[in-house]
Amino acid sequence: MGNIPPVGRKVTLSDIAAGCDVSRATVSLVLRGSPLVNKHTRARVEEELRRQGYVYNRAAANLRRRTSSSIALVLNDLANPFFAEFAAGVDEVLGDTGFVTLLGSTSESTERELAVLSSLMEHGPAGIILSPAEGSDAQQILSAVGGVTPLLLFNREVSGDVAACDHWDRLFLDNQRGARLATEHLIGQGHKRIAFYGGHLGSSSCRQRRAGYTEAMKAAGLSVEPSWMVECIPNRLDAVAQSEQLFQGKTAPTAAVCYNDAVALGLMLGLHQRGLQPGRDFALTGFDDIAEAAVSAPPLTTLAVTPRDRGRQAAELILQRVKDPSPPPRQTIAPVQLLVRASSCPPPA
Amino acid sequence: MGNIPPVGRKVTLSDIAAGCDVSRATVSLVLRGSPLVNKHTRARVEEELRRQGYVYNRAAANLRRRTSSSIALVLNDLANPFFAEFAAGVDEVLGDTGFVTLLGSTSESTERELAVLSSLMEHGPAGIILSPAEGSDAQQILSAVGGVTPLLLFNREVSGDVAACDHWDRLFLDNQRGARLATEHLIGQGHKRIAFYGGHLGSSSCRQRRAGYTEAMKAAGLSVEPSWMVECIPNRLDAVAQSEQLFQGKTAPTAAVCYNDAVALGLMLGLHQRGLQPGRDFALTGFDDIAEAAVSAPPLTTLAVTPRDRGRQAAELILQRVKDPSPPPRQTIAPVQLLVRASSCPPPA
DNA sequence: CCTCGCCTTTGTAACGATCCAAATGTACCC
DNA sequence: GGGTACATTTGGATCGTTACAAAGGCGAGG
């Protein structure tokens, strides 16, 4: 059973063909499990494949067949647990389908996004899943990816000409409904002065969540003070820093719907610094249900978005589109679920 | 300026050549910025490239040149923020170098790891960065990746025949020193009965951290009760569940060095349930410095491992190896830094 | 006018797989 | 024995790019 040592040059189809005295075409048929080849021949070829340690060259096959076996996954912030979970979900499904994931991380820079997209395009992905950086422009993205490769927009809308990108599929969270549910829940707890805290107006998800909040407030006949709408960078640090602003107006809020969990956890710290105990003196809700939300003090009422499931869904959507590009583009809104925990207490008496 | 509409078929070198009446070879030279081509010709070709919206086909080029422009990144748990940060660091460097990241996530399953590795190998990566699943076998991994492609082992050792894989590069955290530092710090605070809590003996990082702990205890002449060495799945949930075990022995510990931050945060909850307040009645330390560690209640003393820097470093190491495979394999031990916070209080008086 | 060198350009054969039409058996029936 | 059907195998062209050797044009120098 002389094993061929793993030396420099790679083993190709021709080596196998030569090794067991058949044509390259036959070996190729064996590789693809064609029923055409004789049982006995197949066995001989398979033995030779093992013996020489053959590795299929998918790039060569893709070139010849004009196919692709990769999907590009471009994320604005891979380090964010939400997107990490999302990526894990995407990769899970793609892996099972024989596709490989081409990863690209843009660190929220539109410039880098374009660079990453063009670089990935050169590898000819069958499709692209893109969670755009803040401020991404539809026209520019289109010119980077070309009109041919299917693209699924995740999580955020892009700015600019709608016509430029109206053939892209979309997968968004139900931001508006989520924020409305959170707001309604706080109203149900008896709050009347409710703020919307954090996030960037530059991002579509923030605008949508604000819209849900406004909708609920309006429906309940509650008014909103300007000082209750505070923007901040959606991370814990800036959320602490900006929390003062909530209390600058004439009347202080008794509760806040926060842009996301990170912001909510930051606000908790800010409240502590003011001598307020979140979940007793002040109610708040988050968005995302990150791992930490369940175990913070107090545990955070928030909206579960199940990013891993979203990743799986995104992969399935793009695969469908790759399989059949003809149906009209589809926009999918994924539901979110309100998880009530101790942070959303009733107002102090 | 008639723009060619973005129709089905992809634009190739030949289309450009035909479009401006030069040979394919010339276009190829232009693409690669060769100084051979005449300035005037170059301009004409470049104009045509733009006009037709040409996209370089790197797969075809790689096939011809027998090169590769991708690096495989295979992680045992992408959803873990530690690895997500790591991946972001890897991708950052690779992106800057013109390489593309092929992602593979194994969900801590050795079976899936082998499947993912073989699938990625078919795309002919120039190198592989592997953070193995628990229980991975060197021999099996070797047979999946072949002896040719450079591999960098990250974070964990693999079991089995050392000779099988002694030509792999390695990048590990200084687990032993980290745990020793944490233990010494607790000893310095006055603790004598210190436990080592959590982790799986199946993983080499856990064994190394235990070794550091044991080393420090021995050096200080402190003895260790068997009931102070508790295993658990390294997540918050199981850490809560197993925390009872710490107090089953004759003498209860007053402090614990935890396998990692997740475990430490779980133990905090377990302590609360026993009526003990962590950071006052019981001291503990973590490992990793996840975002949450700085803001837990109390803030967690832990070891910073800067996963993003590790990712960058891993990318650089594998790129070096790809560039020149000849130097002998190298093992790199990345330093960790003790961050003292409120959780590591002195023992109660 | 021929030769030489220089600057550009180009035809052709690869890279490793697949497709396709055509060629080889070989079994069976009339 | 010839013809037909069926099962199996195969050469050669091809995917989009690059390497290489060789060719073309052109000015200078002898």
TrEMBL record, chains A, B:
Q: Which InterPro entries match?
A: HTH_LacI, LacI/GalR-like_sensor, Lambda_DNA-bd_dom_sf, Peripla_BP_I
Q: Which UniProt keywords apply?
A: DNA-binding, Repressor, Transcription, Transcription regulation
Q: Does the keyword DNA-binding apply?
A: yes
Q: What is this protein called?
A: LacI family DNA-binding transcriptional regulator
Query: Which PROSITE patterns does its entry note?
Result: HTH_LACI_2
Query: What is the scientific name of the source organism?
Result: Dyella choica
Source domain of life is: Bacteria
Q: Where is the HTH lacI-type domain?
A: 11-65
GO MF: DNA-binding transcription factor activity; transcription cis-regulatory region binding
